[in-house]
Amino acid sequence: MLVPFLFLYIPFVFTPIQSSAGSPSEYQLKAAFLYNFALFTEWPEYVGDTLNLCVHGRDPFDEYLAKLDRRRVGARRIVTHRTSTLAELPNCQVVFISRAVIGQLPRILDSVQGSPILTVADSPGAVQQGVALNMVTQHNRIAFEANLTAARSQGLNLSSRLLRLATVVEQ
């Protein structure tokens, strides 16, 4: 069942970032990546039927993230949130760490340690610092890096289909 979704969204992986009015914006594409990351991540059964997708710090997604609200990821549905405190993060299953708060990354990762939370960023070096998935721009295209050790330490399994598309996989 996951294979059709992969082919449906693969064009986003290889779509160039362009500024013309008809082309998707950078954060419209990154919102699609967040959805794909959720699709190809396996959470423990006890997580429940809702995937709380949280943006921690300033939200760069504008209206694009709202389009993910109520979308299905298997039997679960996505609910998006904006968070500003570390105390809110344990209620999330996916946390996008915005560039505005990347300087607090060690504290953010400490606050979610041991919980089934997929951490995602779009900042240079984030994977090496312990973020599970990091979106990068290469040759005017959005790609991503994966930290398999970080994901597994959170009790998450990243699909091999997802990992094959990563430009870097830290193990």
Descriptive overview:
Helix content is 27%, strand content 26%. With 171 residues, it is α/β, with parallel strands linked by helices. Strand 7 (133-138) and strand 8 (141-147) form a beta hairpin. Residues 1-20 have low confidence and may be disordered.
Main structural class: alpha/beta
Order of helices and strands: HHEEEEEHEEEHEHE
Query: What is the number of E strands?
Result: 10
Q: Please state how the strands of the largest beta sheet are arranged side by side.
A: 3-4-2-5-6-7-8-10
Mean pLDDT: 89
Q: Fraction of residues in helices?
A: 25-40%
Compute the gyration radius: what is it? 15 Å
Largest sheet: 8 strands, mixed
Instruction: Note the gap between the termini.
Output: 27 Å
Q: What's the overall geometry?
A: globular
Strand fraction band?
Answer: 25-35%
**What is the count of DSSP helices, taking H or I runs of 4+ residues?**
5
Low-confidence stretches: 1-20
Lay out the secondary structure:
Blueprint: H1 2-13, H2 26-39, E1 41-42, E2 50-56, E3 72-73, E4 76-83, E5 94-97, H3 105-112, E6 118-121, E7 133-138, E8 141-147, H4 148-153, E9 157-158, H5 160-165, E10 168-170
Parallel strand pairs: 2-4, 2-5, 5-6, 6-7, 8-10
Antiparallel strand pairs: 1-9, 3-4, 7-8
Tell me briefly what this model is.
The chain is of the alpha/beta class and 171 residues long. The chain has helices at 2-13, 26-39, 105-112, 148-153, 160-165; strands spanning 41-42, 50-56, 72-73, 76-83, 94-97, 118-121, 133-138, 141-147, 157-158, 168-170.
Notable features of this structure?
single chain; 5 helices; two-stranded antiparallel ribbon; 171 residues; 27% helix; disordered N terminus; alpha/beta
